[in-house]
């Protein structure tokens, strides 16, 4: 277990070695990691952003066999199917899992509360925005399932979010991952990607606050009149 954890959090060293040793079989391993992170609510800590970015940078190297198109297609499918499974788990077993003392050790009430707050604030678009936010990404579809969100709405935002997340992360790695300064400061770059990923949610939140403030101001003026 400790070896697996070390590998997951030292991807910039481990993944190139795995690609060199196992070739195309690595696609299967990456598919599983992305599926598990997005599909199983007890694994929010898996490094999906890092994996996508790094796989894109490796695909840009002529010495490695990874194909960016195969990465985008296969990992987009993994992300979409993962969120769909997570949604179904939330819909069918969410109440039991969040109330069971056994599962509450793995499904932290704090994380569920944050996801619910985010979902309530942004509505259906939270499914899309949540893709770009670590931890929230895993709990949003689960929360949507608990909330009995209409499946046709969920699957639309699920597909848009899953494809966008994978395309942006993989192509960012493909075009920028092999720049020397990026390689030297890989961990810092990943933190930067996470911060940038949070910007859409922040912008939408600020716009809503501004709209709410303006509405309240108009209503106050009307009352005074």
UniProtKB/TrEMBL annotation:
Alphabetical list of Pfam families matching this protein: VTT_dom
Taxonomy of the source species: Bacteria, Bacillati, Bacillota, Bacilli, Lactobacillales
Primary localization: membrane
Intracellular or extracellular location(s): Cell membrane
Protein name per its UniProtKB record: VTT domain-containing protein
Signal peptide: none
Membrane topology: Multi-pass membrane protein
Domain VTT per the UniProt entry, residue ranges: 46-174
